[in-house]
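A brief tutorial aside. Many learners find it easier to grasp structure tokens once they have seen a single protein encoded end to end. The record that follows does exactly this for Aromatic compound degradation protein PaaI. Read the sequence first, then the structure, and try to relate runs of similar tokens to stretches of the chain.
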Amino acid sequence: MSNQDLAERSLSIHWDDPTIGARAARELSGLEYLREMTEGRLPQPPVAKLLRFDFERATEGEVEFSFLPHESHFNPIGSVHGGIISTLLDSAMGCSVHSLLPRGKAYTTLELKVNFVRTVLPRHGKLLCRGKVIHAGGRMATAEGQLLDAAGKLYAHATTTCMIFDAQLG
């Protein structure tokens, strides 16, 4: 392999201090926090930089990310790794739950089920990952997610159960 081939296949990741967002998450409602990120006033989490997805919008109970598949996401057989797709769906569904939380509450994923419908490749272009709350209670929430192309073709879908709890304030 030539030096030129190596240079073309390198990836440099830069992110902001993740404690900035973590502190803000404790001081804002979930929707306020997500909107601060979508509007660029708070940094996106390092995982978004690493996997190359962007927050597009956040409303009560729904979020949308964009994702540009890249060969750095490939598994050994040359398509986007299922773990990347699972992480993207988990993030969208979790953030949809987060969008409904008042200040002082947090969540964590308890269960995740993903169905892979089509192979994801860079030639598919920018994909949208949508998360939507199905049910939100005081201690548990469920949500669903979809990974779609610009024409609305489905590549993967998922469901999650999240636990809601008191966040550590201060």
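Self-check: The chain has a mean pLDDT of 93. If you spotted this yourself, you are ready for the next section.
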